């Protein structure tokens, strides 16, 4: 799918079978043989629920932790023996970790001074970084006297100032309120594009991951479940965990009738047969689960569609309405329809309804 572009893509960080076990009774397997190739210039996100090992993977890449086993390379060179400060990698922490009694400019220059850069170069870089994060006018303000969003910008500028090849960001937006967070998501994406630095971003917020990333690795319990672009992950989740964690999904039991390439013909409980996508490299046969996004299904009165059932709750959300349907076997199925002022909502709780969806929107899940 990446076609011709592929030959120009180089791997920045190559994580192979990386394992981290924290000692204890019992020991904690925080990362279980994870493998990922993160490309140069990409905005790569590690997404997963609390405790799945995102921060551990980030700390291993930064060098704050040593792996139990596996390999970790940057542009073909092993990172494992290198202490954190010798890695061309920098980190932005959730807490920002700014010096409150120093000014914005001093916070940004601090790291460069520690690296022993010439004064003129430091001054030029600080100016460049303040312009990049739009903080030039606040240069002489102490960081204890600026807002949370502004502190976030300074933390970013400070981390970008030494021009690392890779920037690690551990939930950097979680302390910001909703509106600021939305603005900073776009801002971070802009910074990444403008600097061309590879960003590895950690979040448990699926919407944030979908909005900002070039690619996402979905993690669960120390393992990588699926890697792909936002659309790929959303439209074609390979397994139940991914389908469930990202967005809302309906799950339907179905029987595989035949498979050709990435398409399977599956029979639904209603007796109708429909084409569905299969996950790459998975053998699908027999009884399977099909995932269908609520907004990919349509609903109307009657009983002629692929599925029919009884309409339960109808929930109005402004932009759309959610219809909760009970199928004859007891399965719940939600249909989400965009609201339009010119379309009357003529369905009511208790109605017999029929559900339909296009042939290719169903995704067969891996066991
Ligand atoms: P969160 O989103 O809550 O930050 P996470 O996905 O980043 O979670 P990690 O912080 O990597 O998860 O933790 C993975 C697992 O390892 C968890 O079970 C955690 O309790 C455990 N763990 C993390 N750090 C240590 C440590 N220093 N010693 C022992 N166990 C640890």
From TrEMBL:
E.C. no: 7.6.2.11
UniProt KW Translocase keyword: yes
The source's domain of life comes to: Bacteria
Would you tell me the protein name for this molecule? Spermidine/putrescine import ATP-binding protein PotA
- What does this gene product do? Part of the ABC transporter complex PotABCD involved in spermidine/putrescine import. Responsible for energy coupling to the transport system.
Q: Which NCBIfam families match?
A: potA (TIGR01187)
Query: What is this enzyme's class at the first EC digit?
Result: translocase
Q: What is the catalytic activity of this protein?
A: ATP + H2O + polyamine-[polyamine-binding protein]Side 1 = ADP + phosphate + polyamineSide 2 + [polyamine-binding protein]Side 1
**PANTHER family assigned to the protein according to its UniProt record, in alphabetical order:** SPERMIDINE/PUTRESCINE IMPORT ATP-BINDING PROTEIN POTA, SPERMIDINE_PUTRESCINE IMPORT ATP-BINDING PROTEIN POTA
**Keyword Translocase among record annotations:** yes
Q: What are the UniProt keywords, alphabetically?
A: ATP-binding, Cell membrane, Membrane, Nucleotide-binding, Translocase, Transport
Q: Which organism is it from?
A: Sulfitobacter sediminilitoris
Q: How does it assemble?
A: The complex is composed of two ATP-binding proteins (PotA), two transmembrane proteins (PotB and PotC) and a solute-binding protein (PotD).
Query: Which residue intervals define the domain ABC transporter in the entry?
Result: 13-246
According to the UniProt entry, its GO molecular function terms are: ABC-type putrescine transporter activity; ATP binding; ATP hydrolysis activity
User: According to its UniProt record, which protein family does this protein belong to?
Assistant: Belongs to the ABC transporter superfamily. Spermidine/putrescine importer (TC 3.A.1.11.1) family.
One GO location term (cellular component): ATP-binding cassette (ABC) transporter complex
């Amino acid at each position: 799918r990446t076609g011709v572009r592929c030959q120009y893509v180089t791997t920045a960080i190559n994580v192979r079978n990386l394992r981290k076990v924290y000692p204890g009774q019992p020991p904690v397997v925080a990362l279980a043989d994870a493998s990922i190739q993160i490309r140069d210039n990409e905005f790569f996100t590690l997404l997963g629920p609390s405790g799945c090992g995102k921060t551990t993977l980030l700390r291993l890449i930064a060098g704050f932790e040593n792996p139990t086993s596996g390999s970790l390379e940057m542009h073909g060179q092993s990172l494992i023996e290198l202490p954190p400060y010798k890695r061309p990698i920098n980190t932005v922490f959730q807490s920002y970790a700014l010096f409150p009694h120093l000014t914005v400019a001093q916070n940004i220059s601090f790291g460069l001074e520690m690296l022993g850069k010439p004064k003129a170069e430091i001054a030029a870089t600080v100016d460049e970084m303040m312009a990049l994060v739009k903080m030039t006018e606040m240069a002489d303000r102490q960081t204890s006297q600026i807002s949370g969003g502004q502190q976030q910008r300074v933390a970013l500028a400070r981390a970008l100032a030494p021009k690392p090849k890779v920037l690690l960001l551990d939930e950097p937006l979680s302390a910001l309120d909703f509106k600021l967070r939305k603005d900073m998501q776009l801002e971070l994406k802009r910074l990444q594009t403008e600097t061309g630095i590879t960003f590895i971003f950690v979040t448990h917020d699926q919407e944030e991951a979908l909005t900002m990333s070039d690619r996402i690795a979905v993690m669960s319990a120390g393992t990588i479940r699926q890697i792909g672009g936002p659309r790929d992950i959303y439209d074609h989740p390979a397994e139940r965990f991914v389908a469930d964690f990202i967005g809302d999904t309906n799950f339907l039991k179905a029987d595989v009738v035949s498979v050709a390439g990435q398409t399977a013909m599956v029979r639904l409980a209603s007796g109708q047969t429909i084409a569905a996508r299969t996950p790459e490299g998975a053998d699908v046969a027999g009884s399977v689960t099909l995932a269908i996004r609520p907004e990919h299904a349509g609903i109307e009165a009657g009983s002629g569609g692929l599925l029919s059932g009884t309409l339960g709750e109808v929930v109005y959300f402004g932009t759309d309405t959610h219809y909760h349907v009970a199928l004859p076997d007891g399965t719940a199925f939600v249909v989400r329809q965009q609201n339009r002022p010119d379309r009357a909502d003529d369905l009511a709780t208790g109605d017999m309804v029929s559900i339909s969806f296009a042939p290719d929107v169903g995704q067969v899940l891996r066991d």
